[in-house]
Amino acid sequence: MINFDVGGKSFTTQKSTLQKYKDTFFSGLLSGNFPLNEKNIFIDRDPKHFRVILNFLRYQNPNIQEFPLSDDFYVLEEIEKEADFYNIVPLIELIQKKKNDLSENLDEKESQYKKIIERLDSIETQAKKILQAIDETYCGFSNGSFLVKKK
């Protein structure tokens, strides 16, 4: 077991988890080329997304495309920066794909919203014409042009 102190927060994992991918920060750290106190390795990073990094390394499903990631574009940006720091290329690629998918979905939704707004504008224009026709036909006066009799 290896203990990490990431920005003041403790994490524990197995050495094999950290060596899952080659050429990462962790594989270099555990290569034996650096003297380590494996009881507590300090990493001066924000711990906010380290759990995602570790969970990705722990993920056993051979189809990494199914690894659950946030749908929040800005959270993905933050996690991508951390994955880049730790040089976990498969996670970086997965995040980039997820961001592209989100962008495509956003473009599609924007197009749908524009069509809805155009349709609502058309309905509003038609409703105004109908109300104007009703006013002129049945009331015989335009808005605000009637008189009130005083007693």
TrEMBL record:
InterPro entries: BACURD1-3, BTB/POZ_dom, SKP1/BTB/POZ_sf, T1-type_BTB. GO terms for biological process: monoatomic ion transmembrane transport; protein homooligomerization. Keywords: Coiled coil, Ion channel, Ion transport, Transport. Residues 1-66 form the BTB domain. Pfam families: BTB_2. SMART domains: BTB. CDD domains: BTB_POZ_KCTD-like. Gene3D superfamilies: Potassium Channel Kv1.1, Chain A (3.30.710.10). Residues 92-126 form a coiled coil. PANTHER family: BTB/POZ DOMAIN-CONTAINING ADAPTER FOR CUL3-MEDIATED RHOA DEGRADATION PROTEIN FAMILY MEMBER (PTHR11145), RE57120P (PTHR11145:SF8). This is Potassium channel tetramerization domain-containing. The lineage of its organism: Eukaryota, Metamonada, Anaeramoebidae, Anaeramoeba.
